[in-house]
Amino acid sequence: MFISALALSFALSTAAQEPQSHRQAVTCTGVFLYTLVLTAQVVESDPTSENQETAQTAGQLLKAADAERLAAAAREGLSTDANGAALNAWLEANVDNPQAVIERELDGCIGAYVHAVM
Q: Residue 34 has what pLDDT?
C-alpha cells in the first residue's frame, strides 16, 4: 500500500519549483530518506520490478534533495556542522512516526524534486 501511495504521489506531482530553503531541503531530505528505508523494506519482502523501481526513484529523489540541502546551506551561510545538525534533529524529531511525516510532506517534496527523476 505504501508503494502505491508513493507511485500515485509521483504521478500526480507538478513541475519543479524554485530552489528550496535549507529548512525545506532538510524536510525533503528526511522525507526521502525515510521513504527509501520503507520502500527498501517492501522490496525485501516483495522484490517486484515495480517495487524496485519505486525504491530506485526514492533514492534519486533523496540524492537531489540532499544536494539541494547542501546548496541551500551554502546560500544561507550555514556551517557544515549546523547543516548536519539540522538534518539529524529533523530525523530524530520524526523517527517515532515517519509514515505520518511522509504522508504530510511527500507530495510537496516530490513536486519540488520531480525534475531529478524525469
A: 96
